[in-house]
UniProtKB/TrEMBL annotation:
Belongs to the cullin family. One of its GO terms (molecular function) is ubiquitin protein ligase binding. Residues 393-623 form the Cullin family profile domain. It comes from the Eukaryota. Pathway: Protein modification; protein ubiquitination. It comes from Prasinoderma singulare. This is Cullin family profile domain-containing protein. GO terms for biological process: ubiquitin-dependent protein catabolic process. SMART domains: CULLIN, Cullin_Nedd8.
Amino acid sequence: MDKKVITLETGWADMEAGIAKLIRFLEGDEGEVIGVEQYMHLYTTIYNMCTQKPPHDYSQQLYDRYRASFQDYISSKVLPSLREERDEQLLRALVKRWDNHKVMVRWLSRFFNYLDRYYVTRHSLNKLNVVGIVSFRDGVFVELKKAVKDAVLSLVNKEREGESVDRALLKQVLDIFVELGMGGLEAYESDFEQFLLEDTAAFYARKSAAWITDDSCPEYMVKAEEHLKRERERVKHYLHSSSEDKLLAKAEHELLKVHQTQLLDKEASGCAALLRDDKVDDLSRMYRLFSRIPDGLKPISDNFKAHVQGDGMGIVRAAEEAEKERKAGDGAGGGKKARGGPSTDQTFVKRAIELHDKYMEYVTGCFQKSQLFNKSLKDAFEVFLNKGVAGNSSAEMLATFCNTLLSKGGGEKLSDDAVEEKLEKIVRLLAYVSDKDLFGEFSRKKLARRLLFDKSANDDHERSVLAKLKQQCGAQFTSKMEGMVNDLTMARENHGDFQEFLSRKASDKLALDLTVTVLTTGYWPSYPTADLRVPKEMEAGVQLFQEYYEAKTKHRKLQWFFSLGTVQVKGFFKAKTIEMSMSSYQAALLMLFNANERLTYGEIREQLNLKEEDVSRLLHSLSCAKHKVLKKEPEGRTVGKQDVFHFNESFTDKMRRIKIPLPPMDEKKKVMEDVDKDRRYATDAAIVRIMKTRKQMQHQQLVMECMQQLQKMFKPDFKMIKKRIEDLINREYLERDKDNQQLFRYLA
């Protein structure tokens, strides 16, 4: 039996009745929405009308009438009611109408579900829910979007001015813009966002113009930061998340970029003033704000560099003034020879450390460990740390400061941790010094004195600072100093072996206690040699150690440096016996008077076999300085070649143990000569290394690459490199091209 055919008009009449009931419900005229029985009837009606055989398959007509249902509802009910509303009321009405429309789409999509599942899919038509949304977009949104956009922007501006607005309402309205994009943001961006961004720029242009005139830099930044925070909150509460970066970029441009120069250069409150007054919180805020705009931090880092450099140069000037005053005081106090005292060096290095600590805190705190500000700090310190103070280089002053820390009785008493911390800070400062090789040579000289004269306060600190320097400057920088420390460790072990050797040779018992330190020639600084005629009391010990060492080692030759030795001598004076600590040279001279009552200058020189300058220094220390254990004729403060000397039996001192130092020698000249020589060798090696790899090179390119390799240890001089190239040509390591004098070739 054939199923009864439903005509289009008959079936549609049923559908119209259901749709009308749904509309009455949405308009509030119907108490309840469609029940289950009516819903099943409407669904079945659509099913039957879509599954009838042609020509009674009304799928296309139903699809068209589905769209027409929305259009009729919009034109008869929705638009007339919305056209009557304005501003916030329009937004509320729109939200309500959109919610109703979505309910209607949902119900009608259920009624027409079969049509959606088969006919629409087979013919690649828009899904029914899309048709419903497009109907609202084309019928309602296109007409009202300008009024809606203006109403939303009006509320946004009110909120920016401090008024309270309904954020939930704004969120609902802007969600409509997004939903009508049906998966995209075209509607939101073109119909709302671009106008929001224009309004934002205009709003902050007005605000910032007033603030920059009326407010100080910190006040301006507080307001700017607060308003940017509110913009982020605005996005969080009702704008689409994709707007955040664009919105903030507009605000930041007007608030920060436009007024950056004027803001940072404010005389009493700009960047320079904040640095001068240590306004840490304001500087942190400045960094946070300007880090968000392109190249926003460069002017601040330039200010920071100039400020740190200014403070550093202030330390240099203060140290130079202190040195001048000290020299003037020395001159007024009796015409003593003025020399750069350690106090100036100590003060300068201490203040440099304090300055670095202070501004490193700025870099890590205010400027969030920014590489840009790290570089500014580095550049500033490099400028003033490489200036030098009163003829002393920073390399020398750092080495002196380090020596004071590591020496016994070297000034203030510090805990082990405090010493380690200061050593760490010195090594950090060394990173900014261009002449690191000069620091290395001064440090090696001072380390040698500490080790040889037992002045080192702590072996662990010595090894610790070497480890820090090794990490900072490389293994080659510390290899010699590490060898020196190891030599002293070996010397202690050798001393025990030597004592055993002596105990086995009972017949050759020494009249004195002897400790010999064997040094490896390549590790230690070079010292002048002298063929001292050793007193017989000491000579036996020298010969015994020579015998012991030759038996223990093969193919090694000992060279004796008595100038580096220390001797404890007992002086039997009339008042009392005094134990005197002095150099081996001084002891050798003094022991001449065990066998001679009086000796002339010439006789002393002949018996010691030393140079005149050495003999004069020794005699001055024993007859003209604080402890006059020798008397000279004639009396005076200088030593002459015609003077006669004899033992001063009447000498006394309140102490039973005294130290008789030698007049200090100026090591600086020797260090500079050694460093210059090492630099020549390093430059030669770098040139040969480069040319061996490249085979041939242009002059300018060779010089630049050589400078690049050498600048890790010292700042190479262009003229010196040129001179070394000429020397290598003369020594036939390189040759010039016959046709191009600027081209060099390596000679294998």
